[in-house]
Amino acid sequence: MADERPDWQKIGEEFIQLYYSRFDTGNRSSLGELYYQSAWMTWEGEMFHGKEVIVNKLTTLPFKTIQHNITKQDCQPTPDNCIVVMVMGQLKADNDPVMGFQQVFQLRNELGSWGCSNDMFRLSIHNFGA
Amino acid sequence: MILWADYDSRRASVVDGRSRVDTLDCNRYTRAAERCWFTIDASCLTWEGQQFQGKRAIVEKLSSLPFTKIAHSITAQDHQPTPDCCILSMVVGQLKADDDPIMGFHQSFILKNINDAWVCTNDMFRLALHNFG
């Protein structure tokens, strides 16, 4: 049966699959290949600008093993021919309890290939009052 | 209509992002009317996985949501400039609709400057209640 998903959804979902599989297999420095040189990342409210700075942050996160589980992912095309993807899911780092997270990416196409220009990550743990 | 003069300043966009979100904290009628100003015919809304395109479809969805009162509380909001001079915003918060229990939500927006006005071209909303086993 033909895949009837629009291209922007296929590309968004492929990116998500690639991003978290690289993240979870422990080779976080390879995530750098997915970001543009001038990309932005906001990690728990802290901003990082530039591929090297982003990779440095991702490779120095204080856990050895991590596993992401995607609960929902939404993709949309933008007026500038980019793709925005919003992910919500759960992650387990080392022996910590499972935590919810939210992440948003903007993907853009340059010279025929797709990369990430914007990335925002938040844990959901602070989002629930007693 | 909301007009954000200084989009070069990230601080300004943060402040304006907050005021914009605050304008949504009203009843559904006002809320839908407010949103008219922020969407254009190319705008996309994804509401709990369901897609709507165009100002008319988006306003119709927002104004027919099945509650009479709602209050949003923003836990965290992040904003970034994009290579196309848009602003990407991510919001994490809680909402209370009518007498329902408080629920967490996630929402993302892309804001684009068109003819000196900032409009919302992309909007994605999810309740967080399915995100916890």
From TrEMBL, chain A:
Subcellular location: Cytoplasm; Nucleus
Broad class of the protein's primary localization: cytoplasm
UniProt KW keywords: Cytoplasm, Nucleus, Protein transport, Transport
One Pfam assignment: NTF2
Domain of life where this protein originates: Eukaryota
Cellular component, GO annotation: cytoplasm; nuclear envelope
GO BP term, example: mRNA transport
Keyword Cytoplasm: yes
Start and end residues of each NTF2 domain: 11-123
Function comment: Has a role in nuclear-cytoplasmic transport of proteins and mRNAs.
PANTHER family: NUCLEAR TRANSPORT FACTOR 2
Name of protein: NTF2-related export protein
Species name: Gadus morhua
Automatic annotation (TrEMBL), chain B:
Highest rank taxon of the organism: Eukaryota
Predominant localisation class: cytoplasm
Subcellular location: Cytoplasm; Nucleus
A Gene Ontology term for the protein's cellular component: nucleus
Stretches that traverse the bilayer: none
SUPFAM superfamilies noted in UniProt: NTF2-like
Function: Has a role in nuclear-cytoplasmic transport of proteins and mRNAs.
Protein name in the entry: NTF2-related export protein
UniProt source species: Gadus morhua (Atlantic cod)
Lineage of the organism: Eukaryota, Metazoa, Chordata, Craniata, Vertebrata
